[in-house]
User: What shape does this take?
Amino acid sequence: MTATVPTGNTYDKYGSTNPVVRRLMAEFERTLDELLGRAAPASILDVGCGEGVLTAQWASRPGVDRVVGVDLDDPKLAAEWAHRTPPNLEFVAADVSGGLPYGDGEFDLVCATEVLEHVPDPDRVVAEMARVASRDLLVSVPREPLWRILNLARGAYVRELGNTPGHLNHFSRRGFATLLGRHGEVLEARSPLPWTMLLVRVA
Assistant: This one.
């Protein structure tokens, strides 16, 4: 399988000064934090961690002993990882589409935020995530068709009918719940605009 080209955040949504983006991201992170609190993991694997912004935040949560961020081998990502050095945090270069280099049930919680829309075979990636999780999965994707409609409304990616470059998969809330439901029980589904976020207890 051809490796996916890592892009990281081509738009710095975490550091944006745009008030609309800041409001949307605040709700996204608040919802994510609430679901992390419900899962209460001691160990976390962050699949497709990008620059590691959220990964490093999770390493500072009370009761979290181990956090591992995994993403593709890329010098720009590695440079960002080098700045994030909590003692319980590790970054690993690996192509998640080819499998995860961890044992069955090695992590309490396995996360993938804004990842599954980019991978050629999301069901395979979720199956691997479920394999290495002992308890829960926490995942989010852009909610379609809302995501593309909002892109078109702001005049972005018009020739692509609002599709963000690199998005190979397009999930409605129901379709995403169906995908994750094949690998466990959906404990909670949230919709921070314009995403779908699920907490799943692995089967």
